[in-house]
Sequence to fold (659 residues):
Amino acid sequence: MNSIRLGCDYNPEQWTPDVWRADVALMREAGVDLVAINIFGWSSLEPAPGQYAFDDLDEIIELLHANGIRVNLGTGTSSPPPWLTTRHPEVLPAAADGTTRYPGGRQAWCPSSPVFRDRAFALVREVARRYGEHPALALWHVSNELGCHNALCYCETSAEAFRTWLRRRYGKIETLNEAWGTSFWSQRYGDWAEIQPPRAALSVRNPAQIVDFHRFSSDELLDYYRGETAILRAHSSAPVTTNFMVTAHIRNLDYWSWAPEMDVIANDHYLDHRLGDPVAELSFAADLTRGLAGGRPWILMEQAAGAVNWQPHNLTKAPGEMLRNTLTHVARGADSICFFQWRASAQGAEKFHSAMLPHAGTDTVAWREVLRLSAALDAIGEVAGTTVDADVALIFSWESWWAAEGEARPSQAVEYLDQVHATHRALRELGVTCDIVSPDADLSGYRLVVVPCLYMVGDVAAERITEYVAAGGHLLVTFFSGIVDERDRIRLGGYPGAFRDVLGVRTEEFAPLKPGHEVTLTNGATGALWTERLRTTTASTVASYLDGPLPGIPAITRNEFGDGVAWYLATSLDARGMRDMARNVVQNAAVDLLKEDGGDVEAVRRTGDGRSYLFVVNHGVNPVEYPATGHNLITDERVGGTLRVEGGGVGVVREEAPA
Ligand code: GAL
Fold:
């Protein structure tokens, strides 16, 4: 409390002891106080089966401890040593076409493999016994980014585990046949043994089977996590977590089911320059991580000081950019900021990945940026422990993501995350912070609930959303929502089945647009990707299509339902159109805007214990001004009514209560 931790991954296995000592001295200089070690330690710790070599790890832990640095201790199991995959090739995972994925990279293990679990758990037991009560231990770091590469394994061991999982879920084979719609294309099963994972096929595969395979795969790795955690708890009272990958390109784990099992939520985030707006995605990921943390502070477990090495074009960070990125995470609830990694590797697959300490050493812009960041985190330390206020909830679902991006769907150009990002971005541009919540969340505290592209929704969640509106809530639903139930079965009678009544509309058919084609709406906005033949039942029309395949048909509607209001958006609006619509909806719901314009600026409040902090992070080039009175912790200056933040700058104001 009262401080924001600064941390990093450290891989001392790659360096000699004289480097360790120099590193720890520099860590102190940089104010690093939490270091993750032993993430990829297995082949060093257990060089041969059952032979453990802890001397180096002992020495590193003592060195960190002597320097007042706490340890975020990896269990070391993320990548198996060569002796294991050589003696037991059955632990290797298989791709959808049945081909083996060999060692030589990392994470080459099948999540269901009993042999892998047995060997990994033996290592965890040794590590937990040895360090479980060490005074330097702050946190356990189970494996690393579980499922980053091996989430979907199609080997025979996984196939058998999938069958077991299906038996538990459905009980009877007939129930499974119904759930998967196996009357279609002669897929009816007579026995569990006939079922396979959705391996590569000649045509479109059964979509319900694919969604269940995703569910199974997420559960299987969570079960693995539980296995390691149980061992740690038997030997240690330190909190346990693993690093999530709430980031644009990873989607294989349903973190809503994982989150309750973490003692603290930790996320890894890297700017993805393949996206149109990487910084807006950062804000989204931070909000989603806070959602997983149930609003409590969370740990940014990894970010890059500069470039990564795994995108096609790896852009570095301009001076000030790392600070802005970091404060965006802090503004949205992070209380610890860690990097991958401390010292840039000289060898191996990540030798071109940036680090806090670059190849060129300390006489570098990168190192000075680290010191600058450290000073800024010290200056704002008092925000730790406060939480983020939000009047708006955005419903997000991994399960629906898997289902919505089926192999055969109305438009391959409609991607779930794009639609979610567009909605979130519009709110962010208005200075509206939203909590990102699961479809099963309690919505009663929110003034507005936003449901972008929620293709799959269960009855209970759909009813809860409907009741929320009836009780006076405001709702915005965007197209391709409420289409199927949890079995991926169409909700018949007109789209958007689950939300037809609350929205007061009925759609007969979808009319997607070719990429690059646009439609004009009567309110001047432009739509792309999607239109639909929609009729209002009880809703009123806010805007219709002027052209395209459905001229005159409503594109935006508004329905008064019970004591609340429900809006529907049936196309993908351009950014300005989306922002205008969001402003309309938000103001109608009496939600406060921190700003009205667009512009690439974060404006977020953290509050708690009677204190209030306004974060303004200006990612743009022009100065911005916000009404604020109090003290700017970054510049250590009084703010008397207006906070001015230069282009590229940041401000964090401890606000004085209005007189
Ligand atoms: C993460 C991983 C780290 C490192 C980093 C590079 O996926 O946990 O070990 O590989 O990416 O960006």
